[in-house]
Amino acid sequence: MNFSSFAKAKELQQRILFTIIILIVYRLGTFVPIPGIDPVQYARVFEQNSQGILSMFNVLGGGAVERMAIFALNVMPYISASIIMQLMQATIPSLEKLKKEGGEAGRKQINQYSRYLTVVLATGQALAIAMGMNAVNADGLSMALNPGPFFIVSTVITLVGGTMLLLWLGEQITSRGVGNGVSLIIFAGIIAAVPGMLGSALSLSASGGMGMGTFFGGFALIIIGLLLIVFIERSQRRLLVQYPKRQQGNRMVGGDSSFLPLKLNTAGVIPPIFASSLLLLPATAAGFQSQSGPEWLQTAVAYLGAGTPLFLSLYAALIIFFCFFYTSVVFNPEETADNLRKYGGFLPGIRPGQRTTEYLDYVLSRLTLIGALYLTLICLVPMMMSTNAGLGGTSILIVVSVSMDTISQIQSHLLAHQYEGLIKKSKLRGRKR
Predict the structure, then answer these.
(1) pLDDT tens for residues 367-384?
(2) Residue 144 and residue 155: Cα distance in Å, rounded?
(3) For burial by CB atoms within 10 Å, which of 166, 181, 239, 326 has the most?
(4) What is the mean pLDDT of residues 85-91?
């Protein structure tokens, strides 16, 4: 980054400052608890179930779940709604037509549908949380100070309102700040949890519970993992696309060539999120009932606990499945081949049309297999070293991906500022002449 250019880019500085202020507001909200909750009882229940999906959501939410703050749901309902809308666009013809032919208005309409679905998903999750805290256990205790319908309604309104407020803050960052607002909110939550994890590891090492060799070995493994993630996320398979020459008047034009970039990891962080949610959510729900439930339920919870061989096997299988499934949703080889043929482009040595579709599908399948194995390695190794589901490869993937995207946007703003400066200088020189 050119720091001299950054010092002159006042608009970029204002955008970064605005982004920081919004993230500070978000962090303050993670310390505001919802009304009517018994912190002692909730802390006891959270501690008993801290190795399931609660741990993962707590890390993604920057500790808001542990404190049951107003931002406890974070923006995860919106992430789920966006993924569901992408799947629906690939299966429902009317939504697919709206996406292709609607232009900017169609995109806004789909985003509005995503917001409506976010409210529905957030309401369902908040209702489940409120009813769980309102319930009275075998000891006659409840996580609510005054259990009843009023507590359930107020909790649902608070949690849903917190999610929609976060969504609005994220949109403000996207439009007036730097980077993708929703992604930066998740990024800020994960980064906020890192000092606590590092402090716990240091205290455990100082007390003799963890050897210094293990501590530094784990740190070295994290650095290697970060380098691997950056390398894979930046890696592309570039397919050469050529355009034929054509007669225009008395001269020949065209004949240019370009590249069709195919990422190794087209699915991004979606497969680990889907896989962990499908596995950890039933296990966590069963864990709430296992203490007083039947023996078979306790056995199922023991076998499906985070870090067990069965859990790791199912986790790897689901990651690989969702990699291929989600890649097929976001990248359509047939549509890409039709677009190439429409604009006169072709892959050298490959006949346009069906042969191009088959070749793209062949290349994409091989790349997706590499990406699936990479995601499985990144997500399983931290989980094999620690039973803490929150300290996983998903968090590292999100941090690295959001960091690279934000830095890329900052560089784009700097480049645009430099171009504006050059244009102004050229206009001034033209006036002097």
Answers:
(1) 999 999 999 988 888 777
(2) 10
(3) 166
(4) 80
Helix axes 393-432, 270-290, angle to 10 degrees: 140
Cα(381)–Cα(392) distance, rounded to whole angstroms?
8
Instruction: Give per-residue burial for 129-148: e unless 16+ CB within 10 Å, then b.
Output: bbeebbeeeeeeebbbeebe
> Tokens standing for 141?
């205790």
Task: Return the amino acid letter for 159.
Answer: L
Name residue, tokens 């950890």. Answer: 280
Copy the structure tokens of residue 99: 């996406």
Beta bridge partners, 259, equal 240
CB neighbour list of residue 294: distance below 8 Å, 6 or more residues apart:
none
Q: pTM (2 decimals)?
A: 0.79
The half-sphere exposure of 408 on its side-chain side, counting CA atoms within 13 A, is: 8
Distance (Å, rounded) from C-alpha 122 to C-alpha 165?
12
The position carrying tokens 């909730």 is 42
Q: Tokens at residue 204, please?
A: 């455990």
Share of the chain above pLDDT 90, in %: 13
Residue 342 to residue 276: CA distance in whole angstroms: 41
